[in-house]
Here is the input.
Amino acid sequence: MTHLKFVNSKAVKGYTVLELSVAAAIMVSLSAIATPSVLKFMQDGQVDEAKTLLNTAIAECLSKKNQGITSGNEYTPESLTPGKPLPGKYAYNGSKNTNNTPNCSFLQLEDTTDAGSRLTTLIADLSGTSVVKSAVAKHPDSKPGCESWGSCLEGGDIEKLRVAAAAEAAKQARLAKIEQDYSDWLKAGSSSCTLKGDIEKCAFRGREVANRPALDALIEAEVGKLAMDNYKTWLGTPPSKSGCYVSEKINKCVYKGTTEVADDAAVKNAVYNEELGQFNAKLQEAKTNKTDGKVTLNGHTKWTYNGEQYDTEAAYTAAKPVPVAPVVVAPTCIWATFGWPQLC
Here is the structure.
C-alpha cells in the first residue's frame, strides 16, 4: 500500500524578498562603514612588519661590519634577499650592488606605486659610522608610523591630502552649523522663511511647512486675508521693500522684499553690507584699471593711485610724485659773447 504524506504549507517558513533586501542593505552599509577602518588596520600592520624586517636587516649589516667582512656595505641582508615577499605593496628602493641585489649602504622600503600611500617610507642610512633612521609620510594617516621610526619628513601627496581633509572638515563644520542654526531658528517659534544653506525653508510657529505659499496661507488664516493683502502691497510688486511692517497682528522685518530678518537693525545692517559691497566692487575696478583719483559711492570714499588705495586725501596726495617744473633756458646771444650785448 502506498502512503501519501501531506505537508502543511503553513509550516514551511522562509524569508520574503523584502526581508532579504533589508538584510542585504544593512550588510552593504556595515561594509561601507567598516572597510576604511579595516584597510587602515591592515596597512598599519604592514608598516609594523616592514619596520621589523628593516631592523633585522640593520642588525645583519652591523653584524657583518663588526666581523670585518669586506666593508660590510656590499653585503646583502638575508631578510632583503631578492625574491622574498615584502609586506603589502612595499618594495626595496635603496642602494644596490652591481648584480642588482640590495646592499647595506642605504636601506629603503617604499610603496612606489602610490604618491598618497598610507605605507610609511622607511629609510636606514648605514654609510657612516652610525645608523641614521628617517621616514617619509605620504599621507596624513601615516604620520604616527613615520614619527615613531625616526626623523619624519613629508612627501608624495600629503600636502594635497591635508588640504582636502581640511576642506572636508570645514565643509562638515559648516553643515553642522547650518543644522544647528536651523534647529535654533525652529525652537524660537519662528513664523517665516530662512535659508538653510542654499535651500529656503519655511516654518509656522516653529513647525516646518512645505514652502512660502503654505506659510502665507497659515499666517493669512491667523491674521486675516485683508491684513496679508496690506502686507503684500507694502512689500511691492515684485517684492522689493526693505524695512519693518508692524500692523494688524503682523510684525515682520524684510530685506529686499524676500529675505526676512530679525529686526530693524538687521535690515539696516543688510543694506549697509550691500552698499559696502557695491563700493568695494567699484574700488577694486579703479585699482585694477589703475584709475587715479577719488572713488565714492553710497557714502563711502577712498582714493586710488597706480593700483593702490588710500583712506585719506592727504595720504593719496603724499603718494603721488611731486611734479617738477620744466627748466627754461634763455637763448644765448652770440654778440654778448664778444662783449657787445647792446647788439642783442
Observations:
- The longest helix spans residues 17-67.
- The mean pLDDT is 84.
- The CA atoms of residues 184 and 206 lie 10 Å apart.
